[in-house]
UniProtKB/TrEMBL annotation:
This is Chalcone isomerase domain-containing protein. GO terms for molecular function: intramolecular lyase activity. It comes from Melittangium boletus DSM 14713. SUPFAM superfamilies: Chalcone isomerase. Residues 26-179 form the Chalcone isomerase domain. It comes from the Bacteria.
């Protein structure tokens, strides 16, 4: 009798571990594991895309796009007034100057960011960047009614109110890094 209770206890524990492991999903790319979903301020975000950025054959970072609503096309991903998050995990040390140059190059195609009030917001974003070590993160999150928030080891932290700057940033990013098949 004690043996069967012991056996069923271990069996139950084994089943519980399997069930729990099945609910904790993650994707892995270049040794970086990112959860399939996360909760931010009580809102459920799903991993929409994950990719590796390389420069001259060097792995620089893995970036992930989390969205509150799953879009069918790029324009929906940009225009939807829902929580959006770009999360970068660095695979090597990157200096502040390298980060600033990469952001300038990547966002240069968006005319809205080259002049007017959005250029000022871009300069604030670039000013918030700092050196980041291997394993460090840069997190850029848009929250409806709360604006764009920049955090992580690669930033001193920044909040930009409103949606226009966030939209311009996401337009530039998704034009440079397509997440939908053409």
């Amino acid at each position: 009798m004690a043996r069967s209770a012991w056996g069923s206890g271990i069996g139950g524990l084994f089943v519980a571990v399997l069930l729990f492991a099945g609910t904790v999903q993650a994707r892995e790319l270049a040794g970086v594991r990112m959860p399939d979903a996360l909760t931010f301020q009580g809102r459920h975000l799903s991993l929409a895309h994950m990719d590796l950025e390389e420069k001259f054959f060097f792995k620089v970072y893995v970036w992930s796009l989390y969205l509150e609503q799953k879009p069918l096309e790029k324009s929906e991903a940009i225009s939807a007034n829902c929580v959006k998050r770009l999360q970068f995990r660095f695979l090597r040390k990157v200096s502040r100057d390298q980060l600033v140059d990469a952001f300038r190059d990547g966002l240069a195609s968006n005319a809205a960011l080259r002049g007017g009030p959005l250029k000022d917001e871009l300069e604030r974003l670039l000013g918030s960047l700092k050196d980041v070590s291997e394993g460090g993160e840069l997190i850029i999150t848009y929250v409806p009614g709360g604006g764009l928030h920049v955090s992580g080891e690669a930033s001193h932290g920044l909040s930009v109110p409103g949606k226009p700057f966030a939209d311009a940033l996401f337009v530039s990013w998704l034009n440079q890094h397509p997440i939908f098949e053409s």
